[in-house]
Structures are given as C-alpha cells and as structure tokens.
Design brief:
- By secondary structure, the protein is an all-alpha fold.
- It has one domain.
- The protein contains 5 helices and no strands.
C-alpha cells in the first residue's frame, strides 16, 4: 500500500508527539560571546601593560594607602602569590563560562564529559596564552602558570559540581519542610 499523495507519512520526526521537540544545534550566542570576551580579556592581561611592574606598583600603592610596611622579601612573596591567584581566578571563571557555553546556560546539571572538555579547552588556551607571552617584551612563558591556569579551570568546574550537588538537596529540603508545615 502506498500513502496518499496529499497526506505525508508519519515518521519519528514529524509525528504530533515529537513536533517541537527538536532543539537548536547551537546554544544561544550570548554564552559563547561572553566566553570569547573573557578569553580576550585573558589575552589582554597577557600583554606588557599588565606585567609584574604594574601589579607591583599597584600592590605598593595599596599597602601605602593602608599604612602597611613589609620587608622586600615579604613584598615579593605577596606579589607573586597575588599574581598566581589572579591566574587561578581568571581561569576558574573561564572554565565555568566554557561549561555553561556548552549548554547555552540552560542546563547546569553535572555532566562529566562537559566538565572534562571545559578544563581541557581552558588548559589548551592557557598553553597558547603562555606561548603568546613568550613574544611580549617584559613577559615570559611559564609552564608553572599553565598548571595554575588548568588548576583554576578545574576549581571553576568543582564549583559547578558543588552547585549541582547542593542546589537539588536544598530544594528538596525546602519541599519537605513545606510539606510537613502544610500537614500540621
């Protein structure tokens, strides 16, 4: 038997039950644009403008503002720690943005493969960033910084994981509290 030429055969794609179930292939661009903008910010921080001399001057000014005096050795340690903390923070944000970009911000539930992809992409970007710094006067490439950057992305992903695990528990405890209050 053949179908009537006026009536389309029902397949899995056009059945009334599945109509509208197809999702767009690409997530909303705002997440990817934000992620790309953050990547550009990281690149900008890798220029000679944000070298150690600028951050050292800023730290010196902040310490002077609060009338804090430290030895030169302590200043060097604090300055280096702040710079490494900046690496960790900027890549934690980058890792979270990458994770969110893969779903367009619609689904922040835990997905292990998505997490690994976000950390891997952030680590690869870190390598390219350090390669870029190799050619910038006043800057230098550091494998240690790549490790800190990858660890920062992993910290960002751990924050996503913690949120995914804690938010449902908090929601279910509120529901249980509301249910027990309604029963009384």
């Amino acid at each position: 038997m053949s179908s009537s030429p006026r009536k389309r055969p029902i397949t899995g794609l056009n059945s009334p039950r599945n109509r509208g179930a197809l999702k767009p292939v690409f997530p909303p661009p705002v997440w990817w644009l934000t992620t790309l903008a953050w990547g550009g910010t990281i690149y900008f921080f890798s220029t000679g403008t944000y070298s150690g001399s600028l951050t050292g001057w800023l730290l010196h000014e902040v310490l002077q503002l609060f009338h804090i005096t430290v030895s030169p050795a302590t200043f060097t340690v604090v300055h280096n720690l702040l710079r490494k903390l900046a690496h960790l923070t900027e890549y934690a944000i980058f890792g979270m943005l990458l994770y969110g970009s893969f779903s367009g911000g619609r689904d922040f539930s835990w997905r292990g493969r998505r997490a690994l992809a976000a950390v891997a992409i952030a680590a690869i970007y870190s390598l390219t960033d350090e390669f870029h710094q190799w050619f910038v006067p006043g800057r230098g490439a550091s494998v240690l910084d790549c490790g800190i950057d990858a660890a920062g992305a992993a910290v960002g992903i751990l924050l996503v994981y913690a949120r995914a695990r804690l938010v449902p528990a908090r929601t279910s405890s509120r529901t249980a509290a509301n249910t027990s209050a309604a029963e009384k």
